[in-house]
Amino acid sequence: MTVRVFSSLRRIFPAVIGLLMLAGCQDSGSSSTGSQDAVAGDAESDSESADAPSSRSGKIRICLLPKIKGISYFSSCFNGAREAADELGNVELIYDGPTDGDPRKQAEMIEQWTIEGVDVICVSPNAPDVVANAMKDAREAGIHVITWDADGTPESREFFINQATAQSIGEGMVRAMVSDLGSETEGEVVIISSDATSANQNTWIEAMKPALEKSKLKLATIKYPGENSSNALADAQDVIRKYNQLKGIFGISSVSFPGAAEAVEQSGLNGKVLVTGLSTPNDMKKFVQNGTVKSVILWNTVDLGYLTVYAAESLASGKLKSGAMSLKAGRLGEKQIVGDHVLLGDIIVFTKDNIDHYDF
Amino acid sequence: MTPAPDSDQSPVNRARFDQQSADQQQNSDSGPFRKSIFHDSGFRWWHEVAVFVLLVLVLMVAQELVPGFLNPRSQLLLSRHVWEMALISLGMMLIIITAGIDLSVGSTMGLCAVAFGVSFEMTSSILLSCLFCVLTGFGCGALNGALISRWRLHPLIVTLATYAAYRGIAEGWSQGHSWSGFGASFSQLSRGRLLGIPYPGLTFFALTVIAAIVLWKTPAGKHLSAMGYNEKAARFSGIRVDLNRFLLFCISGTLSGLAAVFYVARFDTAKADAGEGFELDAITAVVAGGTSIFGGRGNVIGTILGLLLIHETRQFVGRYWGIEELKSIFVGGLLISFVLIYQFLRPSGQRV
Question: Interface pTM (ipTM) of the complex?
Answer without folding.
Answer: 0.71
